[in-house]
Amino acid sequence: MIVYSNKRFLVVDDFSDFRSSVKAMLTQMGAQHIDVAASGAEAIALCGKTRYDIILHDYNLGDGKNGQQVLEELHQRKLIGPHCIFVMVTAESSQAMVMAALEYEPDAYLTKPFNRASLQQRLDRLVERKQVLAPILDALAAGNQAGVLAACDTLLANQPRLAPLCQRYRANALAALGRDAELQTLLQAIIDERPLPWALVMLAGHLLERGHLDRAEALYEQGISQFPMLPTLYDGLARAKQVRGEQLKAQVFLEQAVKISPNNPQRQAELGRLARANQDPDRAVRAFRQAVNLGRHSAFRDPEHHLSLADSLCAQAGDSAPGPKVLLEIRQTMDDLNSSWRDNDALAARGELLQATALQRAGKTADAAQMAKNAAERLANMEDFFAADTALQVAAQLRALGQEAQADQVLSSCAEIYGDDPKVMAGIAEQTSDPDILRGGDQAMELNRQGMQLYQGKQFPQALEAFRNALALQPRNISYALNTAQSLLRLLLSAPDPALREECLDCLQRVRNMPPGDPRFERYNKLREKAESL
Amino acid sequence: MSDAPEEQSLDFSTVIASTVHDMKNSLGLLMQSYGQLVERLPANEHDSTERGVIEYEFLRLNGMLVQMLGLYKLGVNQLPLRPSYLELEEFLEDQLARHHDILRSRHIEGTYEVDEFGLMGFFDAELVGSVVGNVINNAIRYTRSAIHLRAAMDGDQLVITISDDGSGYPPAMLENQSDYILGINMSTGSTGLGLYFGQRIAELHQRNGNSGHIALSNGGALGGGEFRIWLP
Q: Which keywords has UniProt assigned to this entry (chain B) (predicted)?
């Protein structure tokens, strides 16, 4: 007999009749703490205040977030832990939610209508299951992956029949620990026994990441023949084709995935990017429009979707001048961008440049010039900086709009910040032949090279000197700052020194605003954690 | 900035399907409101005959609508199979729980047994559940006093059996069951359609070149009709 009197319940449905009917059922089962919410936003707010044991969430809430989006956001914001039971209530085992994301699956689906006996039977089982798995869930909640594996082993030694319940936890733990060989063996064994969709997708993705394209593709194709309605499989095939450089085929597969599951903003945006690269602006516009609309309530909301939509709209007009309808949509999209991400100069400037470009092509020269001037002023006063490819794009736009000085300024900042990357320098060279910009970083780069050699030769004090000098020449360069910080840390580990520690933290402080998605962010975090712990 | 939905050719079956979808939602609301109304009735009114009829017909209608939607999705190849490992005890208990009220009000005893302790199956609980649910619904109509569910292994296939103690399926139906199952003869309306649906769902489950199937017989555990579904 499961006791529900000490469990905290949350019932989410937009129909008040349904909420009260479920509440009545739960009360009959002995529940005493039952909160209700009418919308996803309300549910998320409540989860921020209370740790619920059991959440019954309607999938389709009318306007606003749907159940899957709420579940994703709750996971991302860590508002529910592994012990929480999340039941998705649906009107039918419906098409639109066909595994919107395999990553965040609810613990169970419950189809409306249901009676108290069904609800109780289902909840009894779920609670029992979580109780059995408690040692695994405890380790998972503590972020202890090795503990998850140990708990799985203990559990299976006593009750081998629980194997199907443990496999996924085991696989995720092996993946988190980077134990690739064991993970592959486990997944292959699972698939050989039964083609479990999650195991198929995980193994194929794993192989794809490690460059085993043929095997990954074969797995995806095998999966599609068995589960033709699983969009993740088409996503995977599209990624494999992209790695092979077959962009057109990739787009075809991604379109299939979108057709099956049109409600995922990230997938729509990915399709938009491919279509844009494939010179298919019509498709790109439609995909980015969907990405913007769907993203409105999603944890995966991304300003790049807005900017890409505006850019694709402009490209859609081709050689002809964009009409008033197109200009209007671009302006509305950028207004929406600015009101969704307030006080963000980098985004606002990029929006203005896109609008200026469109206006110029529509022959509205004066408006375009004003808009470009606004953007240039914003950029001149901006504290943080773009990612390298964005910076190159912005510089090109500025130049095309007659803002030569600001374009050079952006290129010169770009050279200072990313100049140690030859690819970035090649990109800069395509836009300017100014020796000050192109050669200005040579000396610092040479110092950095020497520093790395010295560091590898374990001559840490000398390496530090070289990096310091490089950084002094180019104070905004991310690599030089990180290299200096790392050398300082190295010295600090053998002999504590408050002044050096201060300098190290200062180096890290300089690059804390590196653009999101920069591959060096991980390294920055590790260095900072270490430095702060000293 | 709204975008028109992806272009789709609008055919008659799509229109029907979307109407059925609405009907199902509407029925769901109706059932819920009815449930709340009943809660407010005095206790001695709770087990009235009419209530049994209403609830039974609710379930029957719902089952038929689910089936129609399922058939439509099969037709356009949109019925996703979402198999997972399940404990059979849990699955059978759930099937009976769905019919708990109606079984009680009709004084039908619902029981289940699982051949071996902790027997696990690998199938789509939602789809197979809708097949089993429809069979239970049908059995409620024709049984005298009991319905029995059983799960067992038949070689390496799982077989789920639903038996009753009624007078069994009509001989003509047993003789021509393959016609119903293959969808050749659907003249008996919902029953024929139900068998066709059951067979299609069973067939979706495949393993090592074997696919699932269904069969009808009389006699069985309780002496009445018996429906079996095999899942590889």
A: ATP-binding, Kinase, Nucleotide-binding, Transferase, Two-component regulatory system
Q: Is A389 exposed, middle or buried (0-12, 13-18, 19+ CB in 10 A)?
A: middle
Q: B110 lies in a domain?
A: yes
Distances, alpha carbon A344 to alpha carbons A311, A351, A379, A429, in Å: 19, 11, 11, 29
A17, A59, A105, A115: best mutation site toward chain B, by most B Cβ within 10 Å? A115
Q: What is the pLDDT of residue B7?
A: 46
| Coil, helix or strand at residue B230 | strand
The whole-number pLDDT of residue B187 equals 58
Q: Quick check: A21 and B36 CB within 8 A?
A: yes
Residues of chain A with Cβ-Cβ distance to B41 below 8 Å are none
| Pairwise CA distance, residues A261 & A94, whole Å | 11
DSSP 3-state of B153? strand
Residues B69, B95 within the same domain: no
CA distance B79 to chain A (A): 7
Tokens representing B138 are 């049908």
> Quick one: CA torsion of A524, A525, A526, A532, rounded to 10 degrees?
100
Q: What is the mean pLDDT of each run of 10 residues along chain A (534 residues)?
A: 93 90 93 95 94 93 81 90 92 54 77 86 92 94 94 91 88 94 94 86 94 95 85 93 95 92 87 95 95 84 94 89 92 93 91 94 93 92 87 94 92 92 92 89 92 92 94 92 93 88 92 83 90 86
Say whether pLDDT at B133 is over 80. yes
Chain B contacts in chain A segment 437-496 (CB below 8 A) = none
Q: Which of B5, B85, B94 minimises the CB distance to A164?
A: B85
User: Which range has the worst mean pLDDT, A437-441, B43-47, B126-130, B192-196?
Assistant: B43-47
Cβ within 8 Å, pair A93-B6: no
- CATH class belonging to A179-260: mainly alpha
Q: In chain A, which residue's Cα lies nearest the Cα of B37?
A: A21
> Does the interface ipTM go beyond 0.90?
no
Q: CATH 1.25.40.10 in chain A, residues?
A: 179-260, 262-354, 443-533
Question: Which listed CATH number (3.40.50.150, 1.10.530.10, 3.40.190.10, 1.25.40.10) goes with A443-533?
Answer: 1.25.40.10
Chain A partners within 8 Å of B157 (Cβ): none
A197·B207 Cβ contact <8 A? no
Mean pLDDT value across residues B113-128: 86
For A:274-313, CB contacts with B below 8 A are 286, 289-290, 292-293
Using CB atoms, pick whichever of B25, B32, B78 lies closest to residue A95: B78
pLDDT of B9 over the 60 cut: no
- Smallest Cβ distance to A259: which of B6, B62, B79? B6
Residues of chain B positioned with their CB less than 8 A from the CB of A200: none
Contact check, Cβ <8 Å, B122/A194: yes
Task: Select the residue of A24, A290, A333 nearest B39 (Cβ to Cβ).
Answer: A24
Q: What backbone phi and psi angles, to 5 degrees, belong to A36?
A: -130, 155
Count the Cβ atoms, other than its own, within 10 Å of residue A526.
12
Angle CA A432–A438–A439, to nearest 5: 155
Q: How many domains does chain B have?
A: 2
Which chain A residue's Cα is nearest to B7?
A: A259
Write down the pLDDT at residue A29.
Answer: 94
Which residue in chain A has the smallest CA separation from B125?
Answer: A109
pLDDT band with cut points at 50, 70 and 90 for residue B125: confident
Strand-pair category, A33-37 with A8-12:
parallel
Domain that holds residue B125: 84-231
Per the CB < 8 Å rule, is A118 touching B35? no
Q: CATH for A8-132? A: 3.40.50.2300
- Residue A103: the pLDDT is 67
Query: What is the distance between the alpha carbons of residues B41 and A138, in angstroms, rounded to a whole number?
Result: 46
Q: What is the pTM of this model?
A: 0.77
